[in-house]
């Protein structure tokens, strides 16, 4: 078992999940509450990573994070090294790649909250922030949990973006899915089997937790 | 209780598809019944006064506060209008207890004042025993009393009631109306039930197809509708 790859994978998934939730909660709130014409294009952009091949996304990220763009140059100026082929670059790639897995459950959760409750909160003087914190978030707990589990599991299993943006640096950017690829290239099928089994266990445990939670709180959005 | 000076003046127009609501009215009485058949525009009118629906044109003044003036692009958000609104299905926050629901609109009050106000309303509506329960643990009538207390908690200048007593028996309805009257908060009360409206000592506004057709003392304004119903009952009895 490649423990270094396991550590990188779990660290990457945890950091990505936390940052994604912090970004996706306000973004999803904006999507469900805005009347702006930008809503449709923004929703389309957040969903795009589901449809794009990971290598396409990885390629553009590689270019964007490299020294040929202003963003890449600013990063190099600040840190002394490029974002590509680092753990930080990998986190940025994972955030973009898993964005729809955070935004979609949250948008669905916020949209399912009874409009009468939102109106009552507004009548009682709640600001947008208080509406989010005191009404939408508690009533969308199941969706937040689903978003967190999906982001974590999706990040654990990603391959194309990781390989393109992070490469295969042991201890820094080599994740479990890359380790399987390396093990197969080395004809180490027994090791590849153990690594693959671990990924399957993580995915199944996450989905079991998701469905158990859904069973424990059926119809949480609609209770009154 | 009736005053010469209106505390609410409204003139507004609102379109939704082919339906046009065009209303001009004043409120002088402590209680005003907004009477009309289903689809007459009663709920839309209340939502516009509350700030939940924007009128195409018009102005609304509540006391000294200009709530809406489309000419000058004024439209106060619902939370700044000092208006309470209770609808047919009590909109209580399901994750909060009855006490927390009552305190939701008192978020910015000092803690002691907030607690005092909550206790006062729990006593007024006889809901002290259920203060710690969540809405799903309460009956429809209990939830409606908590919704009324919640709307009254921030001491609004006007309370809008959109048929909130439909699910209650006559005795409970009378008891709650008496409690509401004791608070001295002016009420605009929607009803499509002539018997219900007739029994309330109040002013009435009659709305038909988006137009106000009469306004004045309840028994004078609703007399034609009452006579029509009595005539129909008489005809049915003879038949």
Written overview of the protein:
The complex is a heterodimer of chains A (224) and B (239). Chain A starts with a helix and ends in an 8-residue tail after the last helix. Chain A is 78% helix and 0% strand. Chain A is globular, with a radius of gyration of 20 Å. Chain A has a single domain, classed as MetI-like (MetI-like fold, Orthogonal Bundle), CATH 1.10.3720.10. In chain A, helix 1 packs across helix 5, helix 3 runs parallel beside helix 9 and helix 5 runs antiparallel to helix 9. The C terminus of chain A is likely disordered. With 224 residues, chain A is an all-alpha fold. Chain B is α/β, with parallel strands linked by helices. Chain B is built from 8 helices and 11 strands. In chain B, the strands form 2 sheets. In chain B, strands 7-8-9-3-10-11 form a 6-stranded mixed sheet, sandwiched between helices. A 5-stranded antiparallel sheet of chain B has the order 2-1-4-5-6, with helices on one face. In chain B, helix 3 crosses helix 4. At the A-B interface, helix 6 and helix 7 of A face strand 7 of B.
**What is the CATH architecture assignment of chain A?**
Orthogonal Bundle
Q: Find the structural class of chain B using helix and strand composition.
A: alpha/beta
Structure annotation, total helices of chain A: 11
Oligomeric status: heterodimer
Keywords:
heterodimer, A: 224 residues, mainly alpha, MetI-like fold, disordered C terminus, B: 239 residues, six-stranded mixed β-sheet, 11 strands
In short:
Chain A has 224 residues and is mainly α. Chain A contains eleven helices and no strands. The longest helix of chain A has 31 residues, at 3-33.
């Amino acid at each position: 078992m490649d423990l270094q790859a396991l550590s990188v994978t779990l660290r990457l998934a945890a950091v990505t999940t936390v940052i994604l939730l912090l970004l996706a909660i306000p973004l999803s709130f904006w999507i469900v509450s805005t009347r702006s014409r930008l809503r449709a294009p923004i929703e389309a952009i957040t969903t795009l990573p589901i449809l794009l091949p990971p290598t396409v996304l990885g390629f553009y990220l590689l270019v964007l994070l490299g020294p040929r763009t202003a963003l890449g140059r600013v990063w190099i100026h600040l840190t002394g090294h490029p974002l590509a082929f680092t753990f930080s670059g990998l986190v940025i790639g994972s955030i973009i790649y898993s964005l729809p897995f955070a935004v979609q459950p949250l948008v669905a959760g916020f949209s399912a909250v009874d409009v009468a409750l939102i109106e009552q909160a507004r009548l009682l003087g709640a600001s947008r922030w208080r509406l989010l914190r005191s009404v939408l978030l508690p009533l969308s707990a199941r969706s937040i949990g689903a978003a967190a589990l999906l982001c974590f599991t999706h990040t654990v299993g990603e391959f194309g973006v990781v390989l393109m943006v992070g490469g295969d640096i042991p201890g820094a950017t080599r994740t479990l899915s890359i380790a399987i690829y390396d093990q197969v290239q080395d004809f180490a099928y027994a090791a590849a089997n153990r690594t693959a089994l671990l990924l399957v266990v993580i995915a199944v445990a996450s989905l079991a937790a998701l469905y158990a939670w859904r069973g424990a709180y059926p119809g949480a959005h609609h209770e009154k | 209780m009736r005053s010469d000076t209106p505390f609410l003046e409204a003139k507004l127009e609102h379109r939704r598809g082919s339906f046009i609501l065009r209303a001009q009215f004043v409120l002088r009485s402590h209680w005003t019944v907004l009477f009309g058949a289903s689809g007459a525009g009663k709920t839309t009118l209340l939502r516009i006064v509350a700030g939940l629906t924007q009128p195409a044109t018009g102005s609304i003044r509540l006391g000294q506060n200009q709530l809406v003036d489309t000419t000058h692009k004024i439209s106060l958000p619902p939370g700044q209008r000092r208006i309470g609104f209770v609808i047919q299905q009590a909109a209580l926050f399901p994750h909060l207890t009855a006490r927390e629901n009552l305190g939701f609109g008192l978020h910015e009050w000092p803690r002691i004042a907030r607690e005092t106000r909550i206790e006062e309303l729990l006593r007024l509506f006889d809901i002290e025993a259920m203060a710690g329960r969540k809405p799903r643990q309460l009956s429809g009538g209990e939830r409606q009393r908590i919704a009324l207390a919640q709307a009254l908690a921030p001491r609004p200048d006007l309370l809008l009631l959109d048929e909130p007593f439909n699910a209650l028996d006559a005795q409970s309805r009378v008891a709650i109306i008496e409690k509401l009257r004791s608070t001295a908060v002016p009420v605009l009360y929607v009803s499509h039930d002539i018997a219900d409206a007739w029994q309330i000592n109040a002013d009435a506004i009659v709305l038909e197809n988006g137009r106000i057709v009469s306004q004045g003392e309840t028994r004078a304004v609703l007399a034609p509708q009452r006579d029509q119903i009595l005539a129909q009952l008489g005809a049915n009895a003879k038949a």
